[in-house]
Input
Amino acid sequence: MDADPRGERWRRVEELYHAALSLDEDDRAAFLKDACGSDVPLREEVDALLSVAGDAERFLEPDAAAPANRPRASELVGRRIGPYLVRGTLGAGGMGEVYRATDTRLGRDVALKVLPATFSANADHLRRFEQEARAAAALNHPNILAVFDVGTDEGAPYFVSELLEGETLRDALASGALPLRTAIDWAIQIATGLAAAHEKGIVHRDVKPENVFVTTDGRVKILDFGVAKLAEGGPPAASLATRSDSTIPGTLIGTIQYMSPEQARGLPVDMRSDVFGFGAVLYEMVTGRRAFERSTPIATLAAILDEDPPYAAPGRPPAVQRALQVARRCLEKSPQARFQSCRDVALVLSDIRADTPARAGAGVRRRRVVVALVLLMAAGIGAWALSRLERSRDAGKIRSIAVLPLENLSHGPDDEYFADSLTEALITDLAKISALRTVSRTSVMRFKRTLKPLPQIGKELDVDAVVEGTIERVGNRVRINAKLIRAATDQHLWAEAYERDMRDVLVLQDEVARSIAREVRVTLTPDEHARLASVRAVDPEAYQLYLKGRYFWDRRTEASIERAIAYFNGAIAKDPTYGAAYSGLADCYLSLGFSFDVGSLPPHEAIPRAKDAAMRALALDESLAEAHNSLAYVKLNYDWDWPAAEAEFKRSLQLNPGYAQAHHWYSHLLIAAGRVDESLTEGRQALTLDQLSPIMNVHVGWNRLFARQYDLALDQLAKTLELDPNYGLAYWYRGLVYEQQGRFPEALAALRKGAEFLKGNVGIDADIGHLYAVSGSRREAEKALRGLRQASTQRFISSFEIALVHIGLGQVDSAFDALERAYRERSDLLVYLRVDPRLDPIRSDRRLDDLIRRVGIPR
Amino acid sequence: MGAAPPFAITQLLRAWNSGDSGALDRLLPLVYDELRRVAHNRLRRERRDQTLQPTALVNEAYLRLVRGKPPQWQNRTQFFAVCARLMRQILVDAARRRDAGKRGGGPVRVTLNEDALTVDSPQPDVLALDEALNALEALDRRKSRVVELRFFAGLSVEETAAALDVSSDTVLRDWKFAKTWLYQELRRGRRPTR
Output
């Protein structure tokens, strides 16, 4: 290589090039003259390179376009560009110079930016430039730099904009995080400006601190609209702003850090890409740190695509944390998961600002202002419905109502649950009004997508009126159409359309709350009015998670309950003061810990958690009927504290007389205590509220089994099976009734059928074992017993189940051993010891009396 | 060939990293296929005058190939280094096809975005840059490689230095000189503006 004259020459050229560049321009000639001597071609080669060195600086650099052939500042000062007299330079942007100029027609000072003439060589480019510049000029908004004019001068396009004094946000961030109030103030202005642009269909594509200008009097202006788009999906061109370009040649840093993931992937972008950029800017304003900054551009890109910046701000005021939550939502990787509009962002931030004292300092108090919009809307519709009910009094008073499942018109994966949950929220609210009987969820869910005529539905549900409606969720918007219809005559009493932004909570709060207050006062007791109007403030995201949790809890399988627990925990994480979420968590653990329900965990593992959650729910909100009911069930089945359980049930029902689940569980306490008539009354009450619910129906049959009213029990179970011919529990309990009647073959058929529908249910296997035993098939019974023991190595099985088979087999001592184990397990099934007919063979044994006493079953 | 299982890429990178030079030979076709697919999908999907961003393409290919199992940073640099050459090849091929198809009204105009506004001809094309790079390679192989890594794979100076096993200073000097040289070369031998 060294011998290669070409290589030698090449190295020499490079050497001289670098050396010359390191010198002042004035010294170069002398240096080169000296260095090249008589080698004219060498000198020419180096000169040629040096002459383009400046222009080549940005060549192949992805960051910004190099200003080729840009006019030298000195050439323009004092000249006229169109009607503008150039007075001096303001600074250089990435693409052209910015000047202070005077509009000679109006006599006002403006900022003028001249682009290289070569820029317009491409007709496409020029057309697009003008198009975009005009669009930007059309953006007349206080938070967007005003573009006054665009034009060309001797082929060089120019921009004219308002002349501002101040600094870029980048400069303002030089000393770290901004005071929170300032950060929020500015962020609101940025979001408002972006929203205005988006509403005109203009996407900025390059939201970053460099493109945000803060004037000396604190007004925020977004720069570079239109210009940014010139680069068509690529990095931005340049700004009209006066600023120094901090991009270091040879790196990408400075542009990619605010890029959205879709931009980084080179995918088409829309306004949600700006939401992302905004989020990164907000993050930086609040924390003083860049959301995505790694040592290399590729690592930065990877971070944008895959990682989240740290959002935890321990020890910082809640308002900071809330601001970070906003940033977090803006920075979601998927555009669908972000705020769908900057308008929403601005509203949420205004809310935070309202809670943030103007002077930074201690004592930032968080006011709970965020309200569950959907809940309020639900309440709103309910209130409306009610007021109309009252007004149409002369047409016959409406005392009962059913809310048909809102029809879901959107198609997202989450929307189905959302429609169902909203239906439920509406029912829950209406149920709190004692003057009105509101049909429960399970009953109305049967009419989902039904084609039956309304009068018939009204008849089947036995209600005077029906609410029906549609719900549509598009991004962050929710649209609900609701109608109130007199069932018998199909007469429309009222209709109302609601369209809201999911995040539009502040505006909505006032609006709906006022309408509730106005409309409801006429018809409700003051207490009920207060209860409805004081719908708890809750974080909307937490509420969403809560609804999901309820949806999955309702399915009552081990897997669905696991999911529900995750959702409730998510809701609690979002809003640790959200009582209802704790109550949901409590119900999940009740389901897992009680053999009467899913029963996959030993009670002592699950129920203390349920209890803890219920207590926390009540500590946060004593008026939660659900939590009192959960607690009651714990007191009954786990603590065996019967008086306390009864008190909790009563409190729950006092708070929400329309809560079918509380009537239902209370009926179990009453039957277990041998209070048959009261139990049947509560069961009937649950049924009236939720007459088409299989679970309410089947448990009236269960109660009658323990009341030893076998024929009535069978009637009830037959009714249940009419509602749902595939309802396993009904077959199961029917088998138990047949067994008591001595109808063993029918009992076996029914139990087997139940087992078919309730795959994996060990309780029913135990009962089949018991049936074999009492019907004389000892070998089969013993086989069943072995099966249970085997199964118990895999999962929790209440020893009460084992005890039952032993009783059937006449193995009294083994039965009591098992019962003792069940006692130590705190099995919920022990509460029925006094009434379960299958225990009759050992009823004379003193050990059973002792057990009954220890379980506290009242006489 | 079908889509390469993602783990194969990572494993081959690892093997290559630990001195198995044969791994690179097996790696290249896999990566090439993926890059080409990404580039072509993009070209098909997007508007006629859509410009290509090589770095975005490489990044997309990378994400697809290592999906689910992000390898170590070291591997990532290697991957991008491998991609640089391939990306250049793919873009040149696409541009040639475009030129060939021009007489029949070719579907897509392939231009490079990053330098869109920088040279007199506002959108110098891939072929011109490729030719200039070939000329540069004949004079100074390392410099052409630096340009490839920086421009076609978007490696930073530090990453380029690591990939080429030279100092960052050297990369900076090479980069600066190569840019100037290429810029001048392109201006001198500018292809007729379309």
